[in-house]
Amino acid sequence: VTTTVSAHSAKVKIAEYSKTPEDFLRKYDELKSKNVRNLDPLVYLLSKLSEDKEMLQCLQQNAKERSEASANATTSTTFAIPPTSTKMSMQELEELRKKLGNVTASSNVPQSAEVTRKMLRDRHNKKNPTQPNPVFPNWVYDRPALIGDFITGATPAGDPAVAIGTMPLPAQEQALVDDLLFVLVGVDGRDITAQPVLGRQNRSFIVDPTLDMSIKELVNRILPVASYYSTITRFTEEKSSFEYGQVNHALTAAMRTLMKEYLILVTQLENLHRQGMLSLQKLWFYIQPTMRTMEILASIASSVDKGDCMGGSTLSLLHDRTFNYTGDSQAQELCLYLTKAASVPYFEILEKWIYRGIIKDPYSEFMVEEHELQKEKIQEDYNDKYWDQRYTIVQHRIPSFLQKMADKILSTGKDTLYYLDQICSDHFLVHPDNGQCKSLCSCEKRIFLFICYCVCF
């Protein structure tokens, strides 16, 4: 699949052939949100199979034969049927239903951020026991006021003395403008309150039902921006923890830079409101250009969160988003900015691997993984298992734009390491006259490494 159009047409074609198209499209969107590799090529292959009548007949015949064989195997097996006298009472049946419901609900609930951080931290510490991940103190997570998002568990200040629906329309509008300026930066207003979120859900809001319908309609158009802000804020706070890797750290830093521009806009709108020059219509007019940017940032944040992306998988998702926004120059430029910012730490690891044969990957994000093996016959046999098994490629860590170069990157780093290991060990050379080790000065090291690079390439 080389274009988004071919993948989309293949998806539509399978939905037309499917007996349950809604289930198929729902499953496709779920897998797409998790950044599943090779999803579009698989859908394209299935669409081609659905067009081939001979292949379909062969598959149907095969399925029929297998079902008949399984039916014959079932009938040939004897089962002990329980006596009909043992029946479950209604109370036992209800208890069983509740237990099954609780198990199903608990399996569908996503893991909390604390559990995910602990799992990633334990996995890293098991792999690198000498270099444990640093950990933020508990008060960073225990104080919700530090996050910048809505505090939904706070006690309300009390019912307003006058219901907003009893006010005249100009007063209602000014009150709602004041509320919206608070809600746009993650603070509940008097007549607009945020709802608690469960897992990775989007933030929703409750607006006073007594509000005039015309004003309420305009308010509902602006509230998605506040929902996007909440999603982005929660994402940047969570992914800034050490356990999520340098690529996610760089991505959240780039998002925070854009969020500063958004907060400057809200500050300017508040200044207009204090001067009495901001109406609800003007607020809607000024916020529209920012709405598209916030929507894209929130969509990327949700996709990275749902797919549990780290390292190369995050870069693949950003690259695919940049490619998919072809035709929308503003969205493509925004995604390209995020991709460039997030790829900086990954390419620093890549540069050290290619030019020095070193993997400095504290969070297990790089495509090449190093395994601890003993050096055996390394001086005599270049193709020994030491070189084949010590450095391997991890497929899900390869960015999609480096997929074709993965094998070449692996072999280049191996060659660099091999030549450096043959010539010296930790920047020491054996003196040709007396056989003693001679330490190199900084100038000699630069010349020596330059000669090694020339030999390697």
From TrEMBL:
One of its GO terms (biological process) is mitotic cell cycle. It is found in: Cytoplasm, Cytoskeleton, Microtubule organizing center. Keywords: Cytoplasm, Cytoskeleton, Microtubule. The keyword Iron does not apply. GO terms for molecular function: gamma-tubulin binding; microtubule minus-end binding. One of its GO terms (cellular component) is gamma-tubulin complex. Its main location: cytoplasm. Residues 177-426 form the Gamma tubulin complex component protein N-terminal domain. InterPro entries: GCP (IPR007259), GCP_N (IPR041470). Transmembrane segments: none annotated. PANTHER family: GAMMA TUBULIN COMPLEX PROTEIN (PTHR19302), GAMMA-TUBULIN COMPLEX COMPONENT 2 (PTHR19302:SF13). Belongs to the TUBGCP family. Component of the gamma-tubulin ring complex (gTuRC) which mediates microtubule nucleation. This is Gamma-tubulin complex component.
